[in-house]
Design brief:
This protein is α+β, with helices and mostly antiparallel strands and 160 residues long. Helices cover 34% and strands 34% of the residues.
Length: 160
């Protein structure tokens, strides 16, 4: 039987990741989007100087824009970019309409960046339609994670 390729093998290496996204939000859908970047931004991202932690997406004039993502200035560049400027996300019209209707229909949803990765030499952003978790949901996630760790420890001890 053929081995299935993991997400990273099919989409390339991860350049930046929003680590707390899956803890703070419940991800309902995810999409890969292109991103309009300047040359110095591409160089900086490829060296690993991007932060997605504070980022969010917003619709402006039927286009999806990425806000508050920090891409550090690239040292050797003559003319650098503004680190937190808004960046346009490139999606098909059908995907944009689907995201817009999902945001309108479901309360408390937003679009957030999950990770930046390379795909055939191009930088892509994985975005997710997310609903914010409440405090008790986060506590439940912590409890189940701790329970799973305890069970794994017990299994390892029993095998020894």
């Amino acid at each position: 039987m053929a081995k299935r390729a993991s997400k990273e093998e099919t989409s390339g290496p991860t350049l930046a990741q929003h680590r707390r996204a899956r803890f703070d939000y419940e991800i309902l859908q995810s999409h890969d989007a292109g991103i309009a970047l300047l040359g110095s931004e591409v160089k900086s991202i490829r060296t690993g100087h991007a932060t997605l932690a504070e980022g969010y997406c917003r619709f402006v004039n039927e286009e999806l824009w990425l806000y508050n993502v920090h891409i550090a200035p690239y040292g050797p560049a003559r003319e650098n970019h503004e680190p937190t400027r808004p960046r346009k996300l490139l999606l098909h019209r059908r995907e944009l309409n689907r995201l817009r209707t999902a945001m309108d229909e479901q309360p408390r949803t937003t679009v957030i960046p999950l990770r930046m990765h390379l795909h055939n030499g191009l930088i892509k952003v994985e975005i997710g339609l997310a609903r914010g978790k409440r405090t008790f949901d986060k506590r439940d996630a912590i409890k189940t994670r701790e329970a799973n760790r305890t069970m794994q420890r017990a299994v390892r001890q029993a095998v020894r």
